[in-house]
Amino acid sequence: MPAVPVQRLLALLFRGIAVAGLAAPASAQTTLPPTELSYILSATITSDYVANGISQSGGNPSFQPFFELDWRGFYGGVAVSYVRLNRDRTEFDVYVGHRRRLANDLFFDLSYRRFWLNASGDCCGEAKARVIFPIGKTVGAELLLAYNDTIDSLNQRGRVLWDLSDRWNITAALGETSFNDNQYWNVGATYTLRNRLALSMRYEGAETGDPGLVVSLGWSNVTNDIARLLVNPFQ
């Protein structure tokens, strides 16, 4: 099957109809108004919750559901994840943001995310800016800056996304966090088992030590795997 152009996926995503458009039949994707309220519902089981090259679940499996509402590119959501951080076992996240398409198929995503832990309470906040742009019909690139004011840490990351076909995509990322001067990277592939179910394998590496191979099984009402990756708050 031919790959879907990245430009088309991103255009739908950032028009504020991420779910209504991507989950609908192709004939309906061009008729949905961009002002329509839509939602994203997703749940993932992963062998290890890794963030910026560091395991947040101590190498243990983690369950990660999230729910998001989107209107005219403005969005807000809640996410939950199992962690193993000292006494804490559950992470609760609340986030808000805005996605917008600019000229030449350039897109930006600005957001703020607040983290709470079940034992420690209010942990920290993270302001995030992402720029996403196509570099070919089936290849896209992402540049990310995220700042955590609690620990005065800047996270810089570049990522390439290659949509091989209707079912396969490959991603590779390289980043660095200033708090611990830790460089990290990952490379992986995702296979769509069904429209709403996908299996991914990703190798996570970092200067502080490689978390290793991470296997995840995820369900989402966003049916395209690239779009699903871009809206995932854990990514």
From TrEMBL:
Keyword set, alphabetical order: Signal
Signal sequence, renumbered to the chain: 1-28
InterPro entries assigned: CHP02001
Top-rank taxon, per record: Bacteria
Protein name: Uncharacterized protein
Taxonomic source organism: Sedimentitalea arenosa
